[in-house]
């Protein structure tokens, strides 16, 4: 099968390689010339036989919209665009409608696997018309992990990215729980080897997971994480998960708290805690720390 990939960053380039290893033809385009197989999107489209399939793997928002706008003018009826980035699910129906006017199909694919996907495979959550999804199954089968799991046709357009968004929201909460447990263990004098405690959890416990394995990897590299600053960004999908929960009246206390914890990590001197300290001093005479 032939496939075009637009966007050859860490995941895009590895996905190109994994699909090629499965025996398929992949033509990749990236704005960085040394990563690209062709010099332009037009050249990429020109190297594919109809019906063409082009996988977009660029940042969500403006970058994705720009590529889809260009492809809309380059592709033909019967071709398909797959958005494999972390686009917001509400953009998928818009993109499907914009391409549909020209007779071009649209499939959204939530992709999980990060830098490990090349060797271990990518979990794929896909939304779109059943016929187009089935036509792309050789590519999905090449990307997914070996075995019966790792791919799902989640539903109509938008379902793939919505499913991936919820996956990332759960990931936020799981990471926060591991982080809180690690901090508490580090705080207690009686626990002398926190790293090995984490390692002991990798077998036979109900909290073992790939995230736990990655936490042990990180502690092996820097046992007390002294080389890191306590600052964490968010990709946007945690926010979208919380917004969707509000829209659907679904309580998500753990995921919401984990998102707010990331916001707190960006404050060296929390304004909220200043008010908390002031109030504790006012009603209870509790000591406060003064700035220099």
Automatic annotation (TrEMBL):
GO terms (BP aspect): D-gluconate metabolic process; pentose-phosphate shunt
Q: Name one GO molecular function term.
A: NADP binding
Origin: domain of life? Bacteria
Write the record's keywords in alphabetical order, separated by commas: Gluconate utilization, Oxidoreductase
For the keyword Heme, the answer is no
Residue ranges constituting the 6-phosphogluconate dehydrogenase C-terminal domain according to the UniProt record? 160-292
Q: Which PANTHER family match?
A: 6-PHOSPHOGLUCONATE DEHYDROGENASE
Q: Which family does it belong to?
A: Belongs to the 6-phosphogluconate dehydrogenase family.
Designated name of the protein = 6-phosphogluconate dehydrogenase
Its gene is gnd
């Amino acid at each position: 099968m032939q496939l075009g990939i637009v966007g050859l960053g860490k995941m895009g380039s590895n996905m190109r390689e994994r699909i090629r290893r499965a025996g398929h033809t992949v033509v990749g385009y990236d704005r960085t010339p040394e990563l690209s197989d062709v010099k332009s999107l037009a050249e990429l489209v020109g190297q594919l036989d109809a019906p063409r399939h082009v996988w977009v793997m660029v940042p969500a928002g403006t970058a994705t919209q720009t590529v889809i706008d260009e492809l809309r003018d380059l592709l033909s009826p019967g071709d398909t665009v797959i958005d494999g980035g972390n686009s917001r699910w509400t953009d998928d129906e818009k993109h499907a409608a914009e391409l549909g006017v020209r007779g071009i199909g649209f499939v959204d694919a939530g992709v999980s696997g990060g830098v490990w996907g090349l060797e271990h495979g990518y979990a794929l959550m896909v939304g779109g018309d059943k016929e187009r999804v089935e036509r792309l199954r050789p590519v999905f089968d090449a990307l997914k992990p070996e075995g019966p799991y790792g791919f799902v046709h989640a539903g109509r357009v938008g379902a793939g990215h919505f499913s991936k968004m919820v996956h990332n929201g759960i990931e936020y909460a799981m990471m926060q729980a591991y982080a809180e447990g690690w901090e508490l263990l580090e705080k207690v004098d009686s626990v002398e080897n926190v790293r090995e405690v984490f390692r002991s959890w990798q077998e036979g416990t109900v909290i073992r997971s790939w995230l736990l394995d990655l936490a042990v990897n990180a502690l092996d590299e820097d046992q007390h994480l002294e080389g890191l600053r306590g600052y964490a960004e968010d990709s946007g999908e945690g926010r979208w998960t919380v917004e969707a929960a509000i829209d659907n009246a679904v309580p998500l206390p753990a995921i919401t708290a984990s998102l707010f914890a990331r916001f707190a990590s960006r404050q060296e001197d929390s304004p909220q805690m200043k008010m908390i300290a002031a109030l504790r001093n006012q009603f209870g005479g509790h000591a406060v720390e003064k700035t220099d």
